[in-house]
Structures are given as C-alpha cells and as structure tokens.
Amino acid sequence: MEPGMFVILIVVYAFAFGGYASTVAGAKGYSPILWGLGGVLLGPFTLLAAVGLPDLKTRAYLRILSEQQGTSAQLEKYGDRDALAELDG
C-alpha cells in the first residue's frame, strides 16, 4: 500500500470514529461537537468512552416521573437504596 493511501485511510477512519462518537454522545444528551472532535483525535477510545456514558435524557425523564409520584423527597432524604427498599415494603 502506498504511503499516501495509508494516510487517506487513517483520516477516513478518524472521521468515521468521530461521527459515531458524536452520534452516540448526542443521543445520550452530551455535546456531539466535543465528542465528535474527541473521536477524530482519539479514535476508538473516545467511541468506547461515549458508549459507557450514562444517559442524561433517561435520567432526567426518570427524575420527572419520580417527582410526579412524590418519591423524589424520599430519594433525597434516604438515598437511592434506602428509599427504594422503603418503597418495596
């Protein structure tokens, strides 16, 4: 393989990882631009980190649901495990 072709291949893979990391991070509620840039610079490591991120959108949705049900005060008072144990009976 020619050296120029190898460089082109590396650049294509870098932008592919950047695009995937951007998509995953954006779907989880994080900045797609920053994670995309990280994906271009660090490649598969950033993509793995983006996959392991907690989902902020789901967390916010669950907090809204718990506030509507009145369980958020128990979560703040006792912590997650004690409040859930108390709710289970």
Structure, explained:
- The chain has about 90 residues and is an all-alpha fold.
- It folds into two domains: about 1-55; about 55-89, no CATH class.
- It is about 85% helix and about 0% strand.
- It has six helices and no strands.
- The chain has helices at about 5-25, 30-40, 45-50, 55-70, 70-80, 80-89.
- α1 runs antiparallel to α2 (about 30-40), α1 runs parallel beside α3 and α5 packs across α6 (about 80-89).
- It is rod-shaped, with a radius of gyration of 20 Å.
Quick take:
This protein is mainly α and 89 residues long.
Strand content: under 5%
Name the helicity range: over 70%
Q: What's the number of domains?
A: 2
Inertia-based shape? rod-shaped
Q: Report the order of strands and helices.
A: HHHHHH
Query: What low-confidence regions span 5 or more consecutive residues with pLDDT below 50?
Result: none
How many DSSP helices?
6
| Strands, total number | 0
| Secondary-structure class | mainly alpha
Mean pLDDT: 83
Please compute the radius of gyration using only Cα atoms. Answer: 20 Å
Q: Termini, distance in Å? A: 67 Å
The major sheet is characterized as: none
